[in-house]
Amino acid sequence: MNNSRRSFLRNSVLGLAGVAASGNRLMALSPARKEIVGLQLYSVRREMSASPLDTLTHLARIGYKYVEHANYVDRKFYGYPAAEFKKVLSDLGMKMPTGHTVFLKEHWDESKKDFSDSWKATVEDAAIVGQEFVISPFLEQSIRKDYNEMLRYMDIFNKCGELCKRSGMRFGYHNHDFEFSELLNNVPLYDHILKNTDPSLVIQQLDIGNMYNGGAKALDIMNRYPGRFQSMHVKDEIESTRKGEKYESTILGSGIVPVKEVLDLGRKSGGTVHFIIEQEAYQRKPPIDCMKENYAIMKKWGYK
Known about the structure:
single chain, alpha/beta, TIM Barrel, 8-stranded parallel β-barrel, 3-stranded antiparallel sheet, 13 helices, 17 strands, globular
């Protein structure tokens, strides 16, 4: 995860503040879903900020049929209410079965044992736009430092899964790097997350690139927790020349991540049905051109 992505998540959190069983058994907990290849729209964040419609049109021409959002503010996706954004996508032959919205502690009212109205609206809008997965990509620092709070929060994750399930969706969590580098009771945070969430209610979106900055590798995690990764951020990494983090993302197949091997394991035993391309750094190439290359590589590998 590069510094711009980290800043984006922190800003998202501030913005939102206002408003081990067998793999076969785990995969059997939900009905079979169609395998898709999509794009995390953070990959073209500047283009989406400047002109969502033109950017989506360009992506549709490349061949993308599925996208994942990283922008939900004041009950709007990239400036469009849910029903309108769904129509924009539909008119381009596209769908948005998944999206990122940070779930915060304030979205759960402990006194009422219920979710806040703002989070209920988030889930409602996700259902309107046609999402299958409602994914939170962050854990607040206070949760990461307190074991009892961590366990309580994972129970709330399960409750959020129940809330999403009532609308025909699943709740999910997306990793970055700290889940592997930070320990709680001498155990990596990611192990706490997987061991204390119900896989029938909470899916995991494994970002196969972010974890490198946390000292972890996707193949190791997937072999340890088969069937847990219904969604995957497909990403490659190279050593970064910029300050901050050791690795930055790059064109698929040109870095140090064995991407094709990870994809195949996800398809075979990871339970993966959503393969979501993401690239956050471009090595001076236009982002749209990178997304075209990535899509072609996925097709060559048999993912389309």
